[in-house]
Fold this sequence. Notes:
By secondary structure, the chain is mostly helical. Helix content is about 50%, strand content about 10%. The protein folds into two domains: about 1-50, no CATH class; about 60-125, no CATH class.
Amino acid sequence: MAHQLRGGDTRGGAARFVEEVTFGPGMWDQLPEELRQLVHNAPTFLATMDDPRWVDLDVPALSQRSVPLLLTDGDRSPTFLRVIVAELARLVDVADGIQRHTFAGAGHVPKLTHPEQYVDTVRAFLAADRPRPARVPR
């Protein structure tokens, strides 16, 4: 995908991203044209991939948060993205107030493919009566 984008094939690279990372096979052709305009994000995507620190995460800062944390993914999301969510959940689970939700039948962007379920999940999370996370000393 990055090779396609660097070679100037932004439409092909975007289509591959949509079909292999976000929505699944055959979905590029089903996207409305306004959503296909994500091809304009190619330079930003490449800049992110070229940044050696793009995966850096300040785990102590997340563990020090004072608000609950909801992590979501889809069961059809690419394996590497599900592993990232699982590892993030493991790393920040040093404090309470964390919840993970996996959307059945969803890929990388359940808020777009399963909007009603996504909104219901977020609303339920926000409405839940739970204590604020305990701050863990650094």
